[in-house]
Amino acid sequence: MGEIDHEKLVTAAMAMKSTALLQRLGFLTDLVGRKLPEKLRLEVRNAIPKSTRSVFGRRDRREDDIGYVADWGLFVYARRNDLLAEVPRIKGRGRRLTSFVRSRAARAPETLAMSKSM
Q: Which of 4, 31, 9 is nearest to 87 (CA)?
């Protein structure tokens, strides 16, 4: 997983002129632990009208869903574990893909063998 150019990411998101996209971008960067730098975070947050609310996830809320995320004006109708299921874990400076590789290996053992040989 390469480094993210936050400046390019925010520029592209702003060009889309979609409030829901900006809300989801902010929420997801927070969720995966790759928060936007404060200046860009404020820029994104200020582009979202304070009264705007969006829904991310399934149609109806379930008891174990994340719920309302005030920072982004977003109702998240999904569980944290479900959203992070395919996100590789990162520890310190070294990148650890252990859980990601394990989950892929359970589905397709030949994929794991192929990735080890690369």
A: 31
36 half-sphere exposure, CB direction, 13 A CA radius = 25
Taking alpha carbons only, the member of 38, 17, 85 closest to residue 26 is 38
Q: Say if residue 29 is exposed, middle or buried (CB neighbours under 10 Å; 0-12, 13-18, 19+).
A: buried
- % helix, strand, coil for the chain, step of 5: 45, 10, 40
pLDDT digits (tens, 9 = 90+) for 52-111: 999 999 999 999 999 999 999 999 999 999 999 988 765 543 343 334 434 444 444 443
Look-up of token digits 């582009």: 47
